[in-house]
Automatic annotation (TrEMBL):
This is alanine--glyoxylate transaminase. PANTHER family: ALANINE--GLYOXYLATE AMINOTRANSFERASE 1, AMINOTRANSFERASE CLASS V. GO terms for molecular function: alanine-glyoxylate transaminase activity; L-serine-pyruvate transaminase activity. Gene3D superfamilies: Aspartate Aminotransferase, domain 1, Type I PLP-dependent aspartate aminotransferase-like (Major domain). The keyword ATP-binding does not apply. Its EC number is 2.6.1.44. GO terms for biological process: glycine biosynthetic process, by transamination of glyoxylate. The keyword Oxidoreductase does not apply. Its cofactor is pyridoxal 5'-phosphate. Keywords: Aminotransferase, Pyridoxal phosphate, Transferase. Belongs to the class-V pyridoxal-phosphate-dependent aminotransferase family. GO terms for cellular component: peroxisome. Residues 39-88 are annotated as: Disordered.
Amino acid sequence: MSPTDRLSLISRHFDYSNAHDVPLNTPFSIERESSRVVDDFNNKSNPFKGQQQKRDFSHSAPSLQEEAKEEKPPTENMSKQAPHPTLLIPGPIEFDDEVLNSMSHYSEAHVGPAFVAVFGETLSMLRKVLLTENPKGQPFILSGSGTLGWDQVAANLTEPGDEALVLHTGYFADSFADCFETYGVKATQLKAPIGDRPQLPEIEKALKEKKYKVITVTHTDTSTGVKSDLKPLAELVRRVSPETLIVVDGVCSVGCEEIRFDEWDLDVVLTASQKALGCPAGLSIVLASQRAMESFKARKTRPTSYFASWKNWTPIMQNYEAKKPSYFATPSPQLIHALNTSLKQILSKPMEERFETHKQQSLRIKKAIEGFGLKQLATKPENQAHGMTAIWLPEGITPPDVLPSLLKKGVIFAGGLHKEVAAKYVRFGHMGVSVTDPKRDDIDRAIQALKDSLVEVGYKAPS
C-alpha cells in the first residue's frame, strides 16, 4: 500500500471540522477533514527524508521486479516494510518483519495437523507470557477484537442478576460496565478522578457492602494512561471477598507490564493481539484460572452468548493444545501464525527483562515530557503506565494543532479518547518492537518530533 493510500485511511484522526461539536478522536466523532494532511504528505517540501529511522521514506516501495534488478546493501538493520510513518499510538503498534511475513503463510486446513500444532503451541506459549503453570487454567484465542473478551467474561462468568464491581480509571471501564448491563448483570462503577485510580480502602468498603460475582480492573486504561496495581488489589479481594472473581482487562498491558497470573492469584486476564503482543489486530485472547473455569461449570443457566460461549470453545482449545484437530468455528490461521511468531520472539528472553525494558524506556519518555514543561494525565508516578503516556497539551493548543505536524515528521500519535477532556491531550504509545528492538530509533525520533511540533505552534517550554 502506498503512503498516500495509508494516509487516506488514517488521516481522519488528524483534522477536526468545526462543524461538529464532538471531541477529537473519540468513538463519538463523526468525520474529520482529511485533505490538508494528505496534501501536506504529498507536498514535496515535506517528504519523509532525513529521518534517523532505518527506513527510507522518500519514495514508494519498489516493485518485486525493480528490487530484483537493484544491487542492495546489507539490510540486517533495515525494515523490509513499505515506507510509512511510525505508528506510536497505544495500539495497534509497529510490527516486526517476521511477524508480518507470518501473515503471508499459504492457506491451509484449520483442522490439518500442521496448523493444529501451531495453534496448540501458541496456546501453550500464552501461558508462559502470563506466567502461569496451572494446567487446569484455560487459555482462549478467538477471532475478534479485545472487546470480545468483555463478552466472554459477561457471557460465561456472570448470569443475569449478578453483581459486578467495575473499577473505573477511564473510558474503558464505562464500556465494560455497559457490556455487563447488556447481559443483564448489575454493574457498579467505583470511579476515580481523571488521572487517578480507586484506592484500596474504598474498594474494601464496596466489597463489604455487597456480594459481587466479579470485580474488574483495567490494568492500563488506554484513554488516560493510568495503570492499576494488581498485586495489592488481588490480595485485598482474596482477604475480603475470596469468592469474587478477579478480572483484569489487560488489552494495553499484556506483554509490557508485569503480570504474574499464578502468584497474584488472578482469575481472568483478557487482552488483544495488536498491542504489546505485537501481532496485527483480530484476536481476542483470554486466560481463565482454575477457579474461573469451576465457576463457569457451576453456572445455573446457559452462557448468554453463542459464539463467545466457553461451552463451545473449551473443548476446542483443549484439543488444539493437545495437538488434536477440533472444530466449532473457523479460526484465523494467518493471525495465529503471526501471533505464534510474536510470542516466540517475546519468550526468547525472560519476561522480567521485557518488563524492565518497557519500564526504563517509559521513564525516559516521561522525563523528556517533564523537561518540555508538560504534564501527564496520570500525575502520580505509581499510576503511570509503562506502555503509553497520556500528555496534557499546553493551554490553547489542541490535538489538531500538533498531530499533523508530527505526521510530517514521520510519527503518529493518537488524540485524546476520554470524552470529558479529549480535545486537551495526546497519547504516545511505546510498546513492542519500538521499545525492544535496539536497531530502531522510534522513541528518540518521536520525542524530538513532539518537541519540534510544539515549538512550531508557538509553545515555549519554561526555562
